[in-house]
């Protein structure tokens, strides 16, 4: 795949930046980096997440789904529910990938973007 090695940054469209910062910082507990000119940045492992108010209609559209990896999907699910996150359903198996089972649970962020938590559980 050429010189591409990993994802460096992802952008999520938001309408209310302050509300989105509160959600991503206080509910999802991502590491807040800084805010500038209608954008806020968070660190999530090796990926930087940019929340951005669209600068024009070209960028005003729903985002791609961001899948956050967690070690304990059930623990993450219950923790986020306790912080007011409303999931579309409980964690469930999506399928098997090699020697792992993929389990996900989907919810919407404060701006209506669909996001998910996921775990890859080794098959015994």
From TrEMBL:
<dbReference type="InterPro" id="IPR052164">
    <property type="entry name" value="Anthracycline_SecMetBiosynth"/>
</dbReference>
<dbReference type="InterPro" id="IPR029068">
    <property type="entry name" value="Glyas_Bleomycin-R_OHBP_Dase"/>
</dbReference>
<feature type="domain" description="VOC">
    <location>
        <begin position="6"/>
        <end position="120"/>
    </location>
</feature>
<dbReference type="InterPro" id="IPR037523">
    <property type="entry name" value="VOC_core"/>
</dbReference>
<dbReference type="Pfam" id="PF00903">
    <property type="entry name" value="Glyoxalase"/>
</dbReference>
<protein>
    <recommendedName>
        <fullName>VOC domain-containing protein</fullName>
    </recommendedName>
</protein>
<dbReference type="InterPro" id="IPR004360">
    <property type="entry name" value="Glyas_Fos-R_dOase_dom"/>
</dbReference>
């Amino acid at each position: 795949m050429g010189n591409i090695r990993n994802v460096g940054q992802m952008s999520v469209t938001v309408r209310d930046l302050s509300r989105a910062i509160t959600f991503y910082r206080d509910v999802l507990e991502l590491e807040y980096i800084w805010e500038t000119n209608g954008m806020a940045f968070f660190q999530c492992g090796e990926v930087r997440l940019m929340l951005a108010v669209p600068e024009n209609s070209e960028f005003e559209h729903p985002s791609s789904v961001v899948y956050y990896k967690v070690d304990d999907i059930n623990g993450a699910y219950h923790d986020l529910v306790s912080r007011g996150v409303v999931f579309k359903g409980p964690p469930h198996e999506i399928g098997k990938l090699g020697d792992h089972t993929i389990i996900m649970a989907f919810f919407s962020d404060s701006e209506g973007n669909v996001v998910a938590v996921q775990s890859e559980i080794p098959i015994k």
